[in-house]
Amino acid sequence: MKPVLSIVVPAYNEEESLELFYEKVSAELEKTSLSWEILFVNDGSRDRTLEVGKELNRRDGRVKVIHFSRNFGNQVAISAGLDACAGEAVVVMDADLQQPAELLPEMIRLWKEEGFFIVHAVRKVYPEKVGLVKRLSSRCFYKGMNLLSDTHFIEGASEFRLMDRRVVTAMRGIHERSRFLRGLVQWVGFPSTTIPFEANERVAGTSSFSAMRLLALALDGVVSFSTRPLRWILYLGFFSAISCVPYALWAIIQFILHGQSRTPGWPSLIVAIIFLGGVQLISIGVIGEYVGRIYTEVKARPLYIVQERIGFDESRNES
Ligand code: UDP
Ligand code: MG
Predict the structure, then answer these.
(1) For the whole model, what pTM was predicted?
(2) C-alpha of residue 249 to centroid of ligand 2, in Å
């Protein structure tokens, strides 16, 4: 029997959160009186996440675990969950309970009764501890993304969202390797709505997203949703090339009128070299980003490797 609801949970070093997550979320799910499954994707944790997951599965067969052979990253873990879940509606949630489970009944109502295919939970308020830098950079990121790309990004959107089976099927049809799910889910379309929420503190453990990882995610977002940076460097190149022309004309006129100057253009030369050198390095870097993406796409490696699946009826899911 296929469950109506699937909860997909990427988990990396979440041994302390998993049980609390199960308690809290299953309590909310029971209120809906729909059948459900919770699918933990253990993304190569180095702690006891797998054991805790197995224990939960022994206690309640509706808990399933996909265990990766190593860490593949949170976006890939979510994708694996979408591949394996069976529900008519799928909710993606973090294991750390930063996203309030109390929202689930309302999200399900919006899907079931109002007919929305996607319900985005949008973070309105950050927990106290989140620094100004993270808030500001998050804002700038969404503003920048909307400027750069044709796909609209919802500010404050997290991975916490409900998706109808048809959305999940569409998402599964996307085989890109560098994935930015928040963008992909916008790209597939379908009627959607948003619901605000207030993020909690993590129940346990620490965030695994350092500033560098967030930067990498942001870069994936920009590069996979827009080729505009490539066009911009073209413009930049044109601009810097053309801006030399008046200066060159002026220098020639000076030469005709006054002859060879006593200071033979040293400062302007250096400025030009540094400026153009910078523009060239940036341009090569931007092109490199795209070429690098082409390289990883062309290799067409599998997105993830599963080491073990716990709690699945393998005859159904091994497709
Ligand atoms: N996560 C994952 N793989 C990773 C890093 C994180 O599956 O390589 C999971 C993590 O267990 C959590 C979710 O992704 O359920 C969000 O991560 P985290 O809470 O560290 O990020 P933050 O909420 O601080 O942005
Ligand atoms: Mg978190």
Answers:
(1) 0.76
(2) 59
